[in-house]
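User: ok so my PI wants both of these folded by tonight, can you help

Assistant: No problem, let's get them done. Here's the first:
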Amino acid sequence: MRDPNSNQSLHSLFGEAMRETSDLAQKEFALFRTEMSQSVKSMFIGLAMVVAAAVFAIAAVMLLTESLVEWLATVLESEALAALIVGGVMAAVAVGLGLYGRNAISRFSLTPERTVRSIKRDTEILSERVSG
């Protein structure tokens, strides 16, 4: 004969497991949203740095190149050499800012690392409970 208490306890265990699973899924989703929000923020900061690099490069070329070339041309007595020196310095600044922005963007990841680790850990714990 079947023990009615055993059926009742199995039913309550199953219900408890379903509630815990639902709570766990909600918590994991909240962690996922938080982590993705932080990653997107980092990406936008990196993108802003790349845009700032481009703006700086354009402004520098427009505002300083001509006057620097003219000044340096009077010192070196060669307008071509002056233009080459000024252009090289402006290019180096633009490259430096661009590399900094690219580095910030490369740290951005769409993979929610903490969420993945947490889900793996939760899966291991649930597996141990079921098998134990």
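One down. Here's the second:
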Amino acid sequence: MNMPSDDERRRLLRTEGILAGLLRYGALGAAGWLVVGMAWGFWGDGPPSAGRAPAFSDRCLATGIVLLIALPVLRVALMAIVFTMEKDYRFAAISGTVLTIIAVGFLLGAL
């Protein structure tokens, strides 16, 4: 069994660090938006009423949810970029195919 070289090991650790940072800080950012939205809704906007425009708290909550949904998509996109830079075209094509499937799903869901 071939052991990876030190350069390959460093590159793998750097890639894993970037992915972990994206997911960690992305989840923290989304959670922050959700907390702000809940706190603002509890103390700032008052009770919801029918027929009113979306309040600031509603927009904060929506932003947090969109960020949570977007994180896995961003991870796949980042992996496609990393695989392309490393000239691993098979996995880059797989990542691109997954991104295409996700995009088609979003477009069909928007109809």
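Residues 7-45+53-110 form one domain. The longest helix spans residues 6-43. Good luck tonight!
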